Amino acid sequence: MKLEQYFATTKGTGVMATCDGKGEVNTAIYSRPHVLGKDEVAFIMLDRRSHANLMENQQACYLFLEEGHAYQGLRLYMSFLDENTDQELIRSMSRRPKRPDEGEQEKKFLVRFRVNKVLNLLGGEQKTLE
After folding, report:
1. Model pTM score
2. Which InterPro entries match (predicted)?
3. How confident is the model over 83-96, as a mean pLDDT?
4. Which domains does the chain show, CATH number per domain?
């Protein structure tokens, strides 16, 4: 499966799960990832709980539920690689206008992940990345 093609052509809702150093889980709605390579994706993150959790525990899971299909989608199991704070780069990659709850000066991060494993939304079938 090619992540770039999948996310370019499939609409849906994404949820990222992160965990802090003590094991407390957080979930948050996230847009589709920016696919940077075969097994590399990036998300634009605000300086909130999900981002803070990644500084303590570098593992995350992104669940993507396809729009209009009953329980179809993917789960991406990911490891934090690095982050970029270049606000101009982040603005150029942003797909949507600023949200109403976003502060004027709220710092954003472009967070890069390695995709370790991709599973179907339901069941344990693992997808091979191309």
Report:
1. 0.91
2. Split_barrel_FMN-bd
3. 91
4. 3-94+105-121 (2.30.110.10)
